[in-house]
User: Which sequence fits this backbone?
């Protein structure tokens, strides 16, 4: 159908005022414009909406009463729709989809979710944990508004804002002789079995640290769970290389693990918030990004505790 909301508003104004002249005056437009809109509506729907009288007044036909009732309901729905959409775009409410790299969410998300709930009670967070590769895909497909992640896999469509950095460290069993050293060498680690995180991008990154020195550690278990990896290290099943360090050294099995810096030069790995470059952020999304900055970008003791 070719009718417009503008035509419906003109028809409702005429019905409310009982006159084209009065409707034109109330809307601040010309009478011919309103008369044309009414004629087009009547032609479009094949009915007479108004009865015209010599004194330039109009009354509704029976069909016209039903038409104006439906038109008024539709216009009210449109007004409600507009108000709600404007609220999403320019108000601090709505749903924001947040993704976080699965291995880091226990470190950062409790504080971020707490900060959002305390500051913005009308913002709902739709939260998911994914691999780095999957986070990039979901940002580009529009599933996610923002993602908290490392910058290991850069994409020209994704805008990354670093909030803090960490350095790779070695995780060892407490009774390993290397754990007694202040720093450990990749050359010594390469002689042991390496327990790796079985995640796209992540495993490649940690192995590339050894390849930089033409080293290839023995392959141990490939694990998706951060805590299972720590348990296996604690039980002496190998070592691992990680980025963020939990505050507790005791694993679920009751064994202790030890975090040690690596002697060789290690790259700084940035952690931050990513958004799709081409997306237009609502104020709710911008507010959540700012909470992420407030929580993570400050050099607090909490953030420093992530580092070995």
Assistant:
């Amino acid at each position: 159908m070719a009718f417009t909301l503008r035509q419906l508003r003109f028809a409702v104004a005429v019905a409310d005022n009982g006159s084209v002249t009065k409707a034109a005056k109330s809307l601040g437009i010309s009478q011919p414009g309103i008369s044309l809109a009414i004629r087009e509506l009547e032609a479009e729907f094949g009915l007479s909406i108004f009865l015209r009288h010599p004194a330039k007044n109009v009354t509704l036909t029976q069909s016209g009463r039903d038409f104006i009732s439906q038109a008024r309901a539709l216009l009210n729905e449109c007004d409600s729709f507009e108000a709600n959409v404007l609220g999403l775009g320019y108000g601090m409410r709505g749903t924001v989809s947040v993704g976080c790299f699965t291995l880091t969410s226990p470190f950062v998300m409790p504080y971020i979710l707490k900060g959002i709930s305390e500051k913005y009670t009308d913002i709902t967070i739709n939260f998911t944990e994914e691999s780095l590769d999957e986070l990039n895909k979901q940002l580009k497909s529009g599933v996610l508004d923002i993602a908290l992640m490392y910058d290991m896999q850069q994409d020209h469509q994704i805008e990354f804002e670093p909030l803090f950095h960490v350095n790779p460290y070695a995780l060892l069993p407490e009774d390993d002789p290397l754990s007694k050293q202040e720093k450990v060498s990749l050359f010594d680690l390469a002689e042991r079995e390496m327990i790796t995180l079985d995640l796209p991008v992540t495993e490649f990154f940690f192995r590339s640290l050894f390849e930089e020195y033409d080293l290839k550690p023995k392959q141990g278990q490939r694990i998706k769970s951060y805590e299972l990896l720590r348990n296996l290290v604690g039980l002496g099943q190998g070592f691992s290389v990680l980025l963020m360090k939990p505050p507790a050294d005791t694993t679920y099995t009751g064994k202790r693990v030890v975090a040690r810096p690596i002697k060789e030069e290690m790259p700084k790995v940035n952690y931050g918030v990513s958004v799709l470059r081409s997306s237009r952020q609502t104020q709710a999304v911008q507010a959540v990004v700012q909470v992420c900055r407030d929580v993570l970008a400050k050099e607090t003791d909490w953030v420093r505790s992530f580092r070995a």
Notes: The longest strand covers residues 158-166. The chain has a mean pLDDT of 89. Residues 62-90 form the longest helix (29 residues).
